[in-house]
Request: fold
Amino acid sequence: MINESSLSRELNEPQLAAVTTIDGPVLVIAGAGSGKTRTLVYRVAHLINSGVAPESILLLTFTRKAAQEMLWRAGRLINDSCSRVTGGTFHSVANMLLRRYGSALGFAPSFTIIDRADAEGIVNLLKSSLQLTANRKQFPSKRVIVNMLSGSVNKARPLSDLIYEDYAHLSEYAEEIVRLQQHYQSFKVDHGLMDYDDLLVNWRRLLAEVPAVREEIAERYRYLMVDEYQDTNPIQADIVRLAAYRHDNVMVVGDDSQSIYSFRGADFYNIMRFPEIFPGTRIVKLEQNYRSTQPILTLTNDIIRNAVEKYTKTLYTRIEGTRRPQLYAARDEKAEADFVVGRINELRREGVALHDMAVLFRSGFHSFKLELELGSHGIAFEKRGGLKLTESAHMKDVLAVLRLLVNPFDTLSWNRLLLTIDKLGPKTAQKITAILAASSEPVAALAAYPGGKGWQEGVNRLVQLFTRLLEHEPVPAALCDIVLDWYQPVFERLYADDYPKRQKDLEQLRTIIASYDDLQRFIDDTALDPPEADLQAYHEDSEALVLSTIHSAKGLEWQVVFIIGLADGRFPHASAFPGEQWEEERRLLYVAATRARQRLYLSYPRELMGADRRFNRVSMSPFLAELSPASYERIEPLPPGGDWLAVRPMPSTAAAAVKPVRKKKLALEDFSLGCRVNHPFFGTGTVRKLNAPRSLDVAFDRHGLKTLHLDYATLNLV
Ligand code: ATP
Ligand code: MG
Reply:
């Protein structure tokens, strides 16, 4: 159990100040690994300890798993009353509130959440039924259109402005796309569908337009907390503003240098605007990093130092560490994979557990070569951020049936199911769907539909399926079995070439659904937080290496981190040019490198297959080339059987020109207690303690006491 004295042992001063501020707005803005998330965890525990009812706390995080883990940790500090705290993503909380209060806006509580693929499906459907006058051939694809629609919502910009400004080459279609958008909106309303953006938009509407609901929500959640605030979009920021309007008890934490979701409309200026929206905000800055060793921190500080836009903050650590991050230029991707596997095996021999290591990359497909290599060495891994289980067509077929049980007017699902019937074409499917949509009893309407040659049998089977399901007790696992029974022959026909491979997905679905006793909850979860397609993800306690996209590694940490694919054209992506996108990629690298606690390995292949399917030589990512060569160690493999050889860093002329190399390295003997020194970040200070062999404590005039290591800190005598 925590109490006041243990709090001050486990938190530093500014963290403690944030945790113990119970009333009023608080903004914690600080770099990676400085304990922002930890501060939130302790604050939940402290609030409850101080008598705040757990039910009145709302904790918003970037993934549902993050919220669960934070509440679990808070529970360990006090007691299990933390499980009564509401925690989740903006989307999952929106879903919960809209099911409860959505009727005030005219929504039935049984609405269905649609994912991106569904949204694209609707756009396609509408595109073909709309009388588009514009040149159809050149008309933007459904993917581009959904990007535009979503961009307009998330960036809070009118669609036509967005098209004229960001998609100038498509501006001749602007009018038609705006028309399409109106149809898309009414289609969703008519069929009880909400896309991800609608969840946020409608939550905001609830707060802004229905005073009684706003009062109730503000009264219920008197303490709001938000992690990773730098990745919120304008709608989310507005939700926070409206939800806290009565009490102002809101604490947000974030790091502008880690903002990596601007492609989804996230706007890190939200952090900067927070104090304007909440006058009297207490701003807390955290400067001590508790995650990484000094050599790793030196490198990560160096990555972000080159950022065009940043709100300067200084980070220091007391975790010394002697190993600099290592950089390996591999001959090709295979050699890069060999390097990672070799290192992992070595580390395991040294006693590092597999689950304490992670390999991070920019895009899901960058790890394919490595996955093969890991497989052939029998190294278990768990891949995160790849394809979601429910994104594949066969899974969507099964889910369509389950979705219809909850919302029989979900036309999209009817259309999808009709298309699984042999010999039934899209035109007929649309015709039948329209009739079902207009009927108050779609299943009966389907049974009554006059049959056609060849496909009557399929329609009969579908009617029988629903009759069986509706008669059965609503136990999700049992319903799922009935659906799978119906689906098996359909599935074998539709995916004749590779159905055995897909079969395991269906089995996985069966395992997942078994843990639910409410079908609506299961369907919401598969839409809001879809499980990963990789089977291994379900053995969470197993000993497995983590492979993850950087986006999915946000907020996490591992003992050992590998970042692969750091080649120019891959990271940053070839389409990025210096500018906003370029800066976002730099922050992405910063997020990746700051996940490491003890060891960091950076690698890239010197040869990559290009779009022309020919191998091209590629150079190191410009983000690495900018770093001071002293901040990492280049390594090269010795011939087979040998160990890895560290080579002296060769300062490139460009880097050397930007960052003068210090002529003489000072030794501890050059300093004495009380002497004055100068540091490029911390300014001037007085030496307070000499720690053999090469570190010293300095009390800086403006930044307080820091422990610095002479190998990494640039200290000069003044
Ligand atoms: P990120 O920006 O990557 O999300 P963060 O600022 O949220 O990082 P945390 O994950 O909360 O940082 O903390 C990083 C690590 O430092 C964790 O292992 C945490 O337990 C540890 N830590 C933070 N503050 C302290 C402290 N005062 N004492 C001991 N350990 C701490
Ligand atoms: Mg965090």
In short: Residues 535-541, 648-663 have pLDDT under 50 and may be disordered. The first helix runs from residue 4 to 10. The CA atoms of residues 236 and 679 lie 40 Å apart. The pocket of adenosine-5'-triphosphate (ligand 1) is lined by residues 10-12, 15, 30, 32-38, 255, 258, 290-291, 555, 557, 594 (CB under 6 Å).
